[in-house]
Amino acid sequence: MNLKFANKKITGILTILPKNEVKFEDEMDNYNFSHAKSLKLKMAMGYNTHRIAGEGVCSSDLCIYGLDYLFEKGLLKKEEIDALILVTQSPDYFMPPTSNVIQGHFALKQDMICMDINQGCAGYIIGLFEAFMLLEQDEINKVVLLNADVLSPKVSMRDRNSNPLIGDAAAVTIVEKSDTPCTIFGNIKMDGTAFDALIIPAGGSKLPSSLETSQLHEDASGNFRALDHLVMKGDDVFNFVQREVPPMIEQLLTTAGCTKEDVDYYMFHQPNKFMLSKLADKLGVPREKMPNNIVENFGNASGVSIPTAVSYNLGATLTRESFLICFAGFGVGLTWASVLMRLNKLDFNEIINF
Questions:
Q1: Phi/psi class of residue 244: alpha, beta or left (left: φ > 0; alpha: ψ in -120 to 50)?
Q2: How far apart are CA 147 and CA 289, in angstroms?
Q3: Cβ atoms 97, 158 nearer than 8 A
Q4: 335-348 residue pLDDT tens
Q5: What's the predicted TM-score (pTM) here?
Q6: CATH classification for the domain delimited by 1-354, as one of 3.40.50.11270, 3.40.47.10, 3.10.20.30, 2.40.110.20
């Protein structure tokens, strides 16, 4: 599905990372594999360190910390917020929505919209789509898009497939109406027939958590996990990304009337270094235009890996310069989505530690 939006802009990106840094080597003894095999995996996938939230830290905690920072620095005013969108797979509660919890914490105005969106790897893109649509309303001028996931408690520490890459993080993106005419192009596709390619089987209404769902079991590859833990069919996900993402990007650029060379950066969701390197090659774009250094430094925090890539790789440069950027997210759902837009001299673009 092709989408188009007019006269919208991103004016700031803030990424919030837990201070707690865990090294790959520190966890190798948890796995049912030799150190030599684990280190080979580290080199292939680009694993190094990942950021893990402290015990009891929730998605709202990271978002509140980031918003506090922006309020104190004068980069955002409470009374200007007309909508608060939170994209997360790890809400504080089943009910109420975590966006309402955050709104209540700051005693923000009642005349606003709060919304939770349950999406993962493509969640940042879907959040942008929702922000753009809300800004079509006359009374909505500034949307705060929050993207947060604290999924480390849902990953088995004895699962070498998932544990080395998972990371916790949050991001705050300010989206506003633009006085300068511009067009934003988007694309989104979904395939729920493969919903179990990335799944936490237990914990919801379909299979509530219990003593039985918490028991560890060994899979055919020697990983130990419970039904309460994330299960990723790595080969299926890799093949899906290589098969479906390149034609989506080709279609997006064709619709926008752009060439691959016109795009300054491809800021994509980062499952691991190997997958992105292969994806850049499949697309025929230089690897330096598609940064793949987030998992090795911070871990894969689902859709938050996209704003993290922007903050980490462009930093303050994006407050002085303008870039045409292609965003893309792909994974859980299965869902894959992309956006082509210009980021023009943001008010802020940085990373802080919680």
A1: alpha
A2: 24
A3: no
A4: 999 999 999 999 99
A5: 0.96
A6: 3.40.47.10
